[in-house]
Structures are given as C-alpha cells and as structure tokens.
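Run Aromatic amino acid aminotransferase through structure prediction, thanks.
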Amino acid sequence: MSEKSPKLRAELDGIPTYKPGKPAASGGAVAYKLSSNENPYPPLPGVLETAVAAAGSFNRYPDMACTGLVAELAERFGVPVEHIATGTGSVGVAQSLIQSTAGPGDEVIYAWRSFEAYPIITQISGATSVRVPLTDGDVHDLDAMAEAITERTRLIFVCNPNNPTGTAVRRAELERFLDRVPSDVLVVLDEAYKEFVRDPEVPDGIELYRDRPNVAVLRTFSKAYGLAGLRVGFAVAHEPVAAALRKTAVPFGVSQLAQDAAVASLRAEDELLGRVGSLVCERTRVYEGLVAQGWTVPDTQANFVWMRLGERTADFAAACEKAGVVVRPFPGEGLRVTIGETEANDLFLHTAEAFFKEL
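Sure, done. The structure for Aromatic amino acid aminotransferase is below.
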C-alpha cells in the first residue's frame, strides 16, 4: 500500500491560523473577556425567545435564501432585495467576495495591520496579498493603497473603522480614494463596527455604494447586535456582485435560529441604540482614562481601544490577565482591548495605570 498522503493545494502551505480572542478562564483569576470585541450585554428583548422558538424546528433545513431577513434588511437600508447577500458572519461573506473575484495570479489589497482574516481568506483563494502599512497614526494610508493598484488587482478591503486600531477614514478622503480606483476593481467597505461610529465625518458605506457599482459594504450582527455565536452577516452590493455572493455561499449556511434572531434584533432597534450608546460612553471613559494616565492612544470609533506597545505587548497582556481581564495581544505590535462591563473596564484601567508607571 502506498504511503503517500492525498495531494493538497500548495496555496495552503504556510497559511496563517486565525487566532480568536482568548476566553476567560473558568474558575481562575480571569473574570472578564475583553479579547473578542463581543457585546457584553445579553440578547435584546424578545430575541432569545425568538431563537428558542426557531430551535423547535432545527430538524429542518433553514430558508436558504434567508427571505425574511433579506426583506427586512432591504426595507431597513432602502436597497433592492437583489442587492443583499447573507453569510456566516461578515467574514463568511468576505471569503465569498474573494472567491468571486480573485484567484491565482490576482491581487487583493488591504491595510496592515487590519482584520487578521484578510490574509487567510486571500491565501485560501490562491490570490496574492498586497499589504499596505497604516500611517503613523494607525489609519489607512489610502493614497498608498491607490498607488498599490496594478492590472492584477481584483479586490480592495477598507476596514472602516479598522480592526484592531479602531481608527476610521473620513468621507472626503474615502471618496477621493474611490474615485481613483478603476471601475473593474471591487472595493469592499468592511463596516463590522459601523453602529459605534460617532464621528459625523465618517461616512455610511451604504450611501457610497448607491452610485458606485464597484463598491460593496459588509455588515454583521456579531458586534453591536450581540449575535456573535449565531454567525450571521450580510453584504450590500450591486446585483452582479450580490448574485456572485449567492453562488459562492455555503448552502444553508445561515441557520434559521440566526435568521429569526437577526430579524428580531432589527426590530428591537430602540433597545439596541441604548446599549450601543452606553458602550460608546464607556469607550470615551476608557479612552480618556488612558490618555490621562499618559498613554498615546489613537482615536477609536469602534467598541475597542488599541495600544501600540511593541516589545512590551506580551508583558502588558500578562499583567491584565493576572488582574482578571483577558485582552487581545498582537505580539511585538500592540494590544486590542474590547469595551466591556464597567467592572472589567475599571480593572483594565487600573492595570494600565500601574503598568505605565513602571515603563
């Protein structure tokens, strides 16, 4: 019998592994998880009950077309139903976008550091990543990204606000960038944290997409809506792109629980806005607290803060864990810290203050 293993695609060699936020240790010192940008609140009123009711029929396949959810989204955002495609979180839709546009020999441009799934899903498709460094202020360098476009470029991600830095690009510079991108290159505005934006100069991507056929917008129910465990996201894009996303989506990928919970969440917008407002207030308190301690922290429009610590990153992450909060370190670069419960944020600020005094 042959000892050879099955032949696998060469593109998978050396593929980076997605690193989820470390969970809080059960029964240990770590009491709060600030590592995954999750919403600390429980499901919105009525959402849990809706999901439980849907669970009664999970012996059946879900509605593959997500008909009810798509109709709700189309009405909510004032777009045609044909312009909406759903998937397993916004990252699932992002992977379908690359599969629909790029393969071996093609290029995908994104800022770096940005969402760590971008290099993974790009390499899986066989395409080549083109990483454009952030500016010194940890913001997308859109001029450099425009200059990086070649005849091989097929897709560009603009994560706005950016994960993990929380920084956002504003309307004038984003529109100027979009005007420079060739019409046959797809620009994906990844707006997973849109609900947390308070800067009036940061545009709504859905308004930009309307008269730009090469712009698609990603949104998710994982963050502000608190449905991270149900995996449902969507894209708003012109019909050719949206149709391609439906072709490349995993059949029945979005469960009926997720679909029904997402619809119920959209209908509980008043409660949602209240919770997001509370998190934004906590974000301001944490940000101002860090600045008062002496830290240099970029302005954030997301539900987290970014601290560039370089070689001290691992030490600070360990200090936080010892204090009872787990954060998301990017070794050698910095820390991303989710805005969580008030008690968790207090623990983090206390740890940051003590650590800064030792620098």
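The chain has a mean pLDDT of 94.
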